[in-house]
Hints:
2 copies of one chain form a homodimer.
Chain A: E1 5-10, H1 14-26, E2 31-37, E3 52-53, H2 57-60, E4 67-70, H3 75-87, E5 91-94, H4 97-114, E6 118-119, H5 130-137, E7 143-149, H6 152-162, H7 167-176, H8 185-188, H9 191-205, E8 207-208, E9 215-216, H10 224-232, E10 235-246, E11 249-260, E12 272-279, E13 284-290, H11 294-302, H12 305-309, E14 321-322, E15 329-336, H13 339-342, E16 349-356, E17 359-367, H14 368-371, H15 376-379, E18 382-387, H16 391-404
Parallel strand pairs in A: 1-2, 1-4, 2-3, 4-5, 5-6, 8-14, 9-11
Antiparallel strand pairs in A: 7-10, 7-12, 10-11, 12-13, 15-17, 15-18, 16-17
Amino acid sequence: MAQKIVAGLFGFGVVGEGLYKLIRQSGYPNVELKTIVVQDKEKKRLLPPERFNYNKDEILNDSEIELVFELISDAEEAFMIVKAALLSGKNVVTANKKMVATHLAELIELQQKTGKVLLYEAAVAGAIPVVQTVDRYLAWQNVKSIRGIFNGTSNYILTALHNGLNYQEALREAQLKGYAEADPTLDVGGYDAKFKSIILALHGFGKLYKPEEVFHAGIQCIDSHEIVWAESHNYTLKLVGNIYSTDNGVSISVLPEFVTTEDKLSKVNGVLNGVTVETSNSGSYFLEGEGAGSGPTGQAVLGDVAPVQTNSSYLYNKGVEESKPVNAVWNIYLKTDVEALLEQITFDQIFEESKYEGQHRIIGRISVSELEKLSESERKHVFIGKLPDNFLQSNKEYQANAKKDPILT
Amino acid sequence: MAQKIVAGLFGFGVVGEGLYKLIRQSGYPNVELKTIVVQDKEKKRLLPPERFNYNKDEILNDSEIELVFELISDAEEAFMIVKAALLSGKNVVTANKKMVATHLAELIELQQKTGKVLLYEAAVAGAIPVVQTVDRYLAWQNVKSIRGIFNGTSNYILTALHNGLNYQEALREAQLKGYAEADPTLDVGGYDAKFKSIILALHGFGKLYKPEEVFHAGIQCIDSHEIVWAESHNYTLKLVGNIYSTDNGVSISVLPEFVTTEDKLSKVNGVLNGVTVETSNSGSYFLEGEGAGSGPTGQAVLGDVAPVQTNSSYLYNKGVEESKPVNAVWNIYLKTDVEALLEQITFDQIFEESKYEGQHRIIGRISVSELEKLSESERKHVFIGKLPDNFLQSNKEYQANAKKDPILT
């Protein structure tokens, strides 16, 4: 067994507390949590106040500490801590997806300059070890696509919508259960899933994207009409992070998708996360696990300790190339109650169009660059759902069956 | 990127050829396949004869070779090679499940004595990186159960049975597609899945089992009666390797299971493999991928190269303790056309019993030690299927529904 490692912990929220409990409960003595630094002196916590420090330097200047767990929520403050820790010769494990996704280029440079280990499995897909699987296990394998449900909050709400609740009820339920913040925008707006997708795009495809250049849309405008339409067409609505190779480059996006019932992602329900990785030579992988919570995220942090002990940084074997997403063309179901917004965008082709109770609905083919003409604040008033590429054909079959079955017409 | 590693390869069958192609196609220069040793000089192969050597020492005595890929089929010969390679200071990656499962204790001792890296991801569950996930990522996590479909051949046949073929047709189809050997006993008899279960039991639970002490039963006696019965009760028949903690110890077995339709294993079809890992503090994980074939198994071998390059052996963090499986008591559906065999075993409780067209069927509760009274050759004439623990209760609901629905009676 590897030697005991002396560690310092920044942050004692859901993840930090989860990590602390796991280290205590597991009975494995390999990690000694020497110092815990938190910000708020008044906050009530699981442990007595004397267990905590309030000065970053208590960890950063302690030469005995070899490993820093960075588990605070503020992304910029987290980046400062990670940077200082690496530069002072410490290994770092972090769970901060926004910080990692926003500073990937600088982080890799710092890691390579210092030669220390920097890992962030907990930043993506909760308990599922997908970063190391893509980075290390599939280092020599060509990845064709990575598609996943990366945000437990949105998935909980979407599952509840399919179970008959409306959006406000579903959101309220998620908030009562502690799955959604008071301001849920980061989750339901697709931002969180975007950070995770950007991290996977680097490890799987060697592409480095700026968050502001990756298209994303949220689930806020979904109502029962969309749910009924989806179910009658044998689809399930999921918020999907989608990265895939095309002849012209790599496409990356986060938006609601009408997922077919044969797709494994359609069965990933509640706060679970799931991800499909398609490769050139070893088929498809599907991984599912808990997407959030103290224990699962704490485990994802703890799971990075073994590679730290063998000095195993990520390989970044596909390269690190600053890129722009390819301008894909998709089949889209779009709905809005602000008709003026529709004047800003042009569909390549419109398959169906309707107005009903103040809602305009268009099903058609449109490029991402058109959808991006809608600003982020405008997108709050628009539902943009991606349909399968074979939508037209399967819709013909649906229409033919609907004619036979009076219930569907 | 890590330095180039010079490797030698033993065996050029399905897996060896797959590995060779991946190394060539992937365009990553990190592995140089210097020497390939095979046994049969006459066999026609993808590469010209001059690319091969026929003397083991060409690899074992070559001090430039740091890594040995052991991919031959003979388990005892493979063990000799792995032993010699480790003792001569080389790292080893092997795909031989029988060899690993049979010699685990000696292999770990050799690994620790020599300090070299020994990895065998490809030995378990095809392309799925489950050994490293359980050993390394979940090293500090308490594992409650590991359940999986580990044999693609049996799963292909069982899927075909549910699609309406009979056993002989399904086996023939599997043979024609190259999924089953001329003598399929190792696969359909549960031996292969048992070796894989034994490997996972060590990494997940720290228990070391002798293959001859682990109960297994095969799928050979399944006919349409069992398939119809399963489907009418909402079950799918799967050959499941099942390892789980009980208050009295760990249970390990391989036998056909009537899997509920909510169980993710019920959706793992064809030659796919799938595995569920249940933990104490981070929920359940489900991993699915290709169970066999040149590319997927070659990938599993290649995926072990990155940890070799960082000198990352398995952790065996749960310990290595020689153990006997606990004597579990299960709900069992048993069928045989050899009535005399039934006299050897005693059920704790019999729920249903019938004789029909020469077949005796018993559904009841029985301990593993009773089932073990049937010898391996006797078990070829008996179908032994494990039912869920809540079978009686769900069967009551089935019976109640059946009364309402004339089709089911």
